[in-house]
Specification:
By secondary structure, the protein is an alpha/beta fold. The protein contains ten helices and 15 strands. Helix 3 packs across helix 9 and helix 6 runs parallel beside helix 7. The longest helix has 21 residues.
Length: about 375
Amino acid sequence: MTDARAAVLTEYRAPFTVETFPRPEPEPGALVVDIEAATVCGSDVHVWAGDLEGRLPISLPLILGHEMAGRVTAIGAGADVDSLGNPVRIGDRVVWAHTPCGRCRQCTLDKEPTLCPQRYIGYMSDCSRPPHFTGTFAEVGYVVPGAGRLVVPDGVESTWAAAGSCAVRTVVRALDVMGRIEFTDTVLVQGAGPVGLFTTALASLHGPRKLVVVGGPADRLAVAQEWGATDVVSVDEHPDPAARVELVRDLTGGGPSVGFEMAGAPGAGAEGIDMTGRNGRYVLMGTLGGPRQEVDVARIVGHGLRIRGSMSGDIGDYAVALDALDRFSDRFDWNRILGSTYGLSELDRAMDAMRAMAEIKPVLDPSRP
């Protein structure tokens, strides 16, 4: 058994330390993988900052990271097929999901495993105990028994699969929660980060009459236009929320019929509700923490708004996400959202780039120092 490195968070808002742990042996149903590419998610930043403490079960020390693609190096008994029944062999690239308990109302009756209160979320779990490699900012990843896992299609680059293993499958779930989008709809996407941009791309496939993206900075809005936005509204050029609301209403003829909150910025949810048109549908996904927001409840009632929350995505959403990345790579240049590549000892810089919005999606290559 050899050791492998991981970037460990021992204190919120503190620098990461690179530590070594024994490479695990897979128990029945588990896989061990060598991480080929990992990407930084906004949720990693929220956990690093302590924003989710008390909202989700989190226990320091942590190995953050949950967007990844890795090559299988060891296969536990019974783990030789993925969640679609495809064979899993040594050397195959895989992605994997958080693990619902399968024994609660949300898993069994509601069929909503992403809402499972006992769901195992590796990057929020104590890494001091074996198998140690709970998150994916590491040389090794451990796929626990019961975790959904998928073999990555040959046409999908590992960096795309990493970004898609959270952002795209989250968008797939949000689109499913939203319901059918018609060519007569006007669509609002709040946020021009990875989730907002992937929402723009996949929503554009439905051919809506208008597709308005609100966000910034300018380079991200340029990607939004490349990926199907008919109009963009810069939060830098229009810093007043009331002015943005009126602008979006004007662009959409009274307010969008479909809206996605993918920004997570303070006040974004309340602002999106103010933007949404009569009988409109609005899905919130971006806001995982932060201060409470004041919402105009009378507007919800008077305009007949339908509002839903959407949380993460399950293994079926992963499968659709990988298919989308594969099938539409000629239509969308997925590399447009990828930032610089960092080694484990450079993770602090990668997180800084994500927090400062200097890069859309920093990439981590654990084989680098």
